[in-house]
Amino acid sequence: MADPQPDQNSPAAIAQSRQRAQSRQRALSRRRLLGGTAYTAGALALPVGLTACEKPSTGGESGGTVTFGSNYSDEVPKKAIAEVMAASGLDVRVNTVDHNTFQENITRYLQATPDDIFSWFSGFRMQYFAAQGLATDISDVWQSIGGDFSPAMKKASTGSDGKQYFVPFYYYPWAVFYRKSVFQEKGYQIPKTWDDFKALAAKMRTDGLIPIAMADKDGWPAMGTFDYINMRANGYDFHVSLMAGKESWEDSRVKQVFSLWRELLPYNQPGANGRTWQEAAQSLGQKQTGMYLLGMFVGQQFQGEAAADLDFFPFPQIAEAHGQDAVEAPIDGFMISSKVKNLDGAKELLRYLASAKAQNAYLGSDPNNVATSNSADASGYNALQKKAVELVSGAKQISQFLDRDTRPDFASTVMIPSLQSFLSSPKDVNGLCKRIESQKKTIFAS
């Protein structure tokens, strides 16, 4: 695969990376807006890059159409969610927007004319919009669906006021993915420790492989590497406290994270800031790269024999005190906007999406996640799904991912450009941490 950005360390490359990060915060171009949005005729285009629609006067058992703002834009999940909605028995109008566009413009979308239901994430990001008055309390929905979810799932769906605002649909762990056939052919062993991991990467490079696939064009994939190094080196509690703005980014423990990460960079696929996660996944599929740290959704890029050849192992231990205790396993699901037009219909749709029927239907088309409902049928899970359940159930702590465990404005305006800058120019860790801390203080003070 051609390398879109061969020299990350040049001044031009660094400037280009920063320019890309800044441009994501501005209005999207017409090309990206039209290319990323699939919706029915009559939709009203909003300047923020998302669309919404007016409630029709007829249709649906709930007395009208339920509009659904969806970030399921990739081919596999888009098809799966369409099948789920079609089987709901309700009149659902789906407004699909490019995943990154949706995420980067979500606040303005919710403040403008949002859909009734929208896809979103659990944890801090859910709590943030609930606290801002941009989501509807669905505690009454939980009274009828709560029996199908674990206490942990309910906690992940609960706002800081103790009310529920979120229905979990599936989760997917982040781990290091690899091709079983490559490991078998080369005699590679699964690394347990940081030193083992680096030694394996060095051996892969000797064997002519690019050891670690890497992509950060969209700004978020590199966050997973930061999270795991931080949790393995400093522990889950410190990581959560850092994400909450309670720790200094100039702390020696944070600088250690970047120093450790820097040890991996010689083994990384070059040009990460110019590559999408899908392109990096394809390099793993083509056996050009040996390992790839990503969420289980990476399986969407593998079909047939290649899918059966895909496997993963937990991110290796760095500090013995923290072992491999923490697992990054984000939960995706749905919320009702505060400007909902068809509240009864929206709640009816949420009850359906919480059901085993809906989750089984989705995973039948996109078997790269794990259902959240205790009643979901796991008998048909593939090997990766079964291994994912084992990994998450055995974890002592579960994180939700950097851009979900912290304020969305901090994640998008500070961490995306900061991590891209680090990948381009990793030498000045002190300066990087100082800049992050300065911006953090301003954002968390607001």
UniProtKB/TrEMBL annotation:
InterPro entries referenced in this protein's UniProt entry, alphabetically: Bact_solute-bd_prot1, SBP, TAT_signal
Region Disordered: start-end pairs: 1-21
Compositionally biased residues, Polar residues: 1-11
UniProt-listed Pfam families: SBP_bac_1
Highest taxon of source: Bacteria
Gene3D superfamilies membership: Periplasmic binding protein-like II
Protein name: Carbohydrate ABC transporter substrate-binding protein
Upper lineage: Bacteria, Bacillati, Actinomycetota, Actinomycetes, Micromonosporales
